[in-house]
Amino acid sequence: MSYEATEAQLKSFQAQHEYLKTKLDLGKELLWLTQEECKTAGPTIDETLELVKQALIAHGKKAYEMPAKIGIHPYPDVFYHAMPAYVPDNLACGVKWIECYPRNPKEFNLPQTTGLLILNDITTGVPITVMDSAWLTAMRTPAVTALAANALHPDATTFGMFGCGIQGVAHVRYIVKTLKNLEKIYIYDVRDETMDQLIEEVKAEVTIPIIKVSSPEELVKQSEVMSSATVILKDTLKVVKKEWIGKGQTILPCDLNTFWDPEICYMADKYILDSKEEHELFADMGYFPDGLAPVACETGEILAGLHPGRTSKDEIIVCSNVGISVSDVVMGQAIFSKALQEGIGRKLPL
């Protein structure tokens, strides 16, 4: 899907170009930002929620261009994704190149996920920055879950999180920002020490009780809203059984249908995706061996007010958010802009 810029947007592109010329020798140098520099220049949780909301609304209104992510897979448990996007209202244009090696922490003492984001000047196309993309990915992913939870189940008093690693920690930090009526958070991980670590990491900012459960079934039975950030595999693990799901629950997986019984998507009253095109691509790759369930709408359409989302307290809703690059480039543009303003990063020759 292509997007034709409006006259006002074209003027904004030119204004941005003129500003960039005062900061960079365009076409001859770019700004390099390390992960620590991205954190320094990066948005807060509240600012991230707003930026990601803008990106998702643009996606819902079709004011963007974003081909489905393509990838390579050197090993069965590994993926690399190329994720380009263009969001004109945020002056954001670029591509993320990111990979996931689940074995890295244990075997090589390296992060599971690493990657780079490249942004371009829209007027001329020249690259203007190269930055770490792992940190902004870790920030934008829970923002989508938290925004979707608020749109689909704003009165929820309980939230359950499967997976207590980096993304589990981030989800707990974010969810209390959007679900204002939360009274309890339930967490589950196969490693007890990982649950303890999550509680320790968020205790200074999350004041409601965080409760460790002893089984996936217990978490499901206690939670109105649930999310999962585990692994993405073609062979579904079916850890959560369809028999455990009850009326009125909202399920927000970040790991496709790996963790959940695939039949749950079919029994849902509404099946919502952050991107139909992305999920169809994954289906073609074999991640949905039974095909995709009928899709009600996309996450951005709900945030943009184009679809009502939940219309009954008894509805079972599954909203799968695998991650879309409109969020990445919008986040990256915000980091780049602040870095330029505050003199963060290093200028490197092209």
- The value of Rg in angstroms is 20 Å
Low-confidence stretches: none
Dominant shape? globular
CATH topology of the largest domain: Rossmann fold
The CATH superfamily label of the largest domain reads NAD(P)-binding Rossmann-like Domain
Helix/strand order: HEHHEEEHEEHEHEHEHEEHEHEHEHE
Structural class by helix and strand composition: alpha/beta
Integer tally of domains:
2
* Residue share in β-strands: 15-25%
The total of helices stands at 12
- Under the CATH scheme, the architecture of the largest domain is 3-Layer(aba) Sandwich
Mean pLDDT: 95
Q: What is the CA–CA distance across the termini?
A: 31 Å
CATH class of the largest domain: Alpha Beta
Most strands sheet: 8 strands, parallel
What's the arrangement of strands in the largest beta sheet?
9-8-7-10-11-14-12-13
Query: Helicity range of the residues?
Result: 25-40%
Task: Give a nutshell description of this structure.
The protein is α/β, with parallel strands linked by helices and 350 residues long.
